[in-house]
Amino acid sequence: MNPKLPPLQRQIGEAAACIALHLKAKPEIALILGSGLGELVNSIDISYVVKYAEIPHFQASGAPGHLGQLVFGTLLGKQVVAMQGRLHGYEGNTPQQVVFPLRVMHALGAKTLITTNAAGAINANWQVGDIMLITDHINFTGENPLTFSQLETAYDPCPDMSFAYTPALRELAKTAAEKTGIMLREGVYLGLRGPSFETPAEIRAFRVWGADAVGMSTVHEVIAAASCGMRIVGFSLLTNMAAGIESKPITGEHVLEVSSSVGSKLAAIVDYLVESM
Ligand code: HPA
After folding, report:
1. CA–CA gap between residue 135 and residue 229 (Å, rounded)
2. What's the pLDDT tens digit per position in 152-177?
């Protein structure tokens, strides 16, 4: 690796080179599988699996419902790489560490990102188990993964976020939902660092800001993907009503239970989407 490259650039190159040794084809599409959604890999014809802990410069994923491995293979005729479990800020990772796997998937060839998460529904008209197509986001983590990232000029240091969730892919996602007969909500995702769930007062404030769903991921990965010039489409699986909407408490176990039981609906949309890309 060229020693003159900025350190982060060199680390991305080292991680990608180590993985590329095992690949026969470059992945075109990167998938990030959120809490309890790891089963979405079931339809991938797998060619190579590697644990994050075995990849240079990767952090291991320790969150419940996140296996922490990259899965390579073919999904409905397309070369894909799936993050079976993501990294979170609430595990103590910096935003740069959270987006490192995304940068490596891009370096390996992925030009499109399909990202998924479990989220709480702020929109009180929606229901647990609904799926939301992310139209836009509010980054309320107070941090940005591009801060001092010192990458080469191939990356946009200040990407325009106006069309980050690629309009053409959003249309395709809506077609996918129609064709598979699955109802798809559309709305704004608000991402914060966690790990505590929100207070009812925070949720009331977020609703006024125009947020429809809330979670602890996704926004940093999407910012980094936009900086890489990737096409992006994102889905939230609404595992619970956000704090204060219902009188029952929110638990991580319940989030995982719902996401694994309804995950197959999201898998059907993702499969259709990948096939028609
Ligand atoms: N808040 C934050 N993150 C979440 C939630 C929530 O209500 N549900 C699933 N992930």
Report:
1. 17
2. 667 888 899 999 999 999 999 999 99
Q: How far is the CA of 255 from the centre of ligand 1 (A)?
A: 7
Of 239, 235, 209, 207, residue with least CA distance to 222: 235
pTM metric for this prediction: 0.95
Return d(Cα 25, Cα 159) in angstroms, integer. 29
DSSP letter assigned to residue 198: P
**Quick one: tokens of 227?**
């900086």
Q: What is the CATH number of the domain that holds 196?
A: 3.40.50.1580
Per-residue CA distances from 208 to 140, 144, 201, 243 (Å)? 14, 23, 11, 15
Q: How far is the CA of 214 from the centre of ligand 1 (A)?
A: 6
- Does residue 2 fall inside a structural domain? no
Mutate to test the pocket of ligand 1, among 126, 137, 198 (most ligand atoms within 8 A of CB): 198
68 belongs to a structural domain:
yes
**What is the Å distance from ligand 1's center to 192 Cα?**
10
Mutate-to-test residue for ligand 1 from 214, 254, 266, highest number of ligand atoms within 8 A of CB:
214
CB 248 within 8 A of CB 127: no
Domain that holds residue 166: 7-276
Residues 74-113 have pLDDT tens digits of 999 999 999 998 999 999 999 999 999 999 999 999 999 9
Verify cis geometry, omega within 30 degrees of 0, for the bond prior to 195.
yes
User: Looking at the predicted structure, is the pLDDT value of residue 35 above 90?
Assistant: no
Residue 1 domain flag: no
Q: Is residue 80 part of a domain?
A: yes
Q: State how many domains the chain has.
A: 1
d(CA 230, ligand 1 centre) in Å: 26
The whole-angstrom distance between residue 91's C-alpha and the CA centroid of its chain comes to: 16
Q: Cα separation of 242 and 58, whole Å?
A: 32
